[in-house]
Amino acid sequence: MAELKEVKENVYRALRELGLTEPELKLYTLSLILGPSPIATLAKSIGVSRPNLYKVIMGLEKHGLAKFTERKKYARDFSVEPPTIVLQQLRRKQETVSGLDRDLTSAMPDLLAFYHQGDAPTKIRVLEGKEQFLNVYNQILDEAKDQIEFFGSAADIVQFTSWENQREWAKRRMAKKIMVRSLVLPSKEAATISQSSKSELRELRILRGTNPFTASFNIFANKVAIWQPKAPLVVLIEDEYIVQMFRSIFYKLYDHSRTE
Asked: Taking CA 162 as the corner, what is the angle to CA 158 and CA 164, rounded to the nearest 5 degrees?
């Protein structure tokens, strides 16, 4: 059986998640242990005056966690609802937040389409390590609306992220009906990707006549992600004017390259 300290810590974390104040946390936890108790006893135990204790009780009542016993006609004892009520409320909140997360994720491409930077400062982040690299890579699908552009070394991206990751990423992209236009260096990985392009909402062209390089970039929403898989790191730039420049360069080269 768990120790009292551990139980109290678990209850505290749950109640904080529900938005209770520190006095409300103390009163709920104390009442949970003591059971139905007189107001005077509780006020003394948590070190507040009776008027202030009633304010704390009102806070618990708003959360649906407080009640008075009906056994005494005049001086009723105070008690709290059982922890099962806390768990129910916590689950309802989690379901609500999960639903909001799904709705906001679904609406994100449209919201970003309405967003205009104007005079807002450019945001540039340098994120290092494989985990950060993959987080940004997956972020693309949360924010992209109809289309993504990719330029660079498909071989280095595949070798870094793995073919399994690429296939899962492609499935998610197709589920969201996001087209990708890719301009890549010649490689066996590029040839493999090209074979499934028609069935995977992809247009792929090969950039020939250039010296090999390992870096690449993606254009999506109002951002450019510059990938350097050897470090590894990603430079994430949020600036609509820089995005316009990258997109202009991309299509100038793309239009003069051959479809595979």
From this structure: 120
The DSSP bridge pattern shows strands 216-220 and 179-184 to be: unpaired
Cβ burial of 174 (10 Å; 0-12, 13-18, 19+) is middle
38-65 per-position pLDDT tens digit: 888 888 888 888 888 888 888 888 888 8
| 8 A C-beta contact, residue 173 and residue 143 | no
Statement to judge: residues 128 and 167 lie in one domain? yes
Q: What is the DSSP string of 86-97?
A: HHHHHHHHHHHH
Q: How far is CA 242 from the centre of its chain?
A: 25
Predicted TM-score (pTM) of the model is: 0.57
**What is the Cα–Cα distance from 217 to 235, expressed in whole angstroms?**
9
Please give the tally of structural domains in the chain.
2
**Cβ-based burial of 227 (10 A; exposed 0-12, middle 13-18, buried ≥19):** buried
SS3 116: coil
C-alpha to C-alpha distance for 167 and 4, rounded to whole angstroms: 49
Helix (H, G, I), strand (E, B) or coil at 117: coil
Task: Please name which of 157, 103, 110 lies closest in space to residue 130, comparing C-alpha atoms.
Answer: 157
**One domain, residues 163 and 219:** yes
**Which tens digits make up the pLDDT trace of 89-122?**
888 888 877 777 666 666 655 655 555 545 556 6
Q: Which domain holds residue 34?
A: 4-87
Q: Does the residue 97 lie in any domain?
A: no
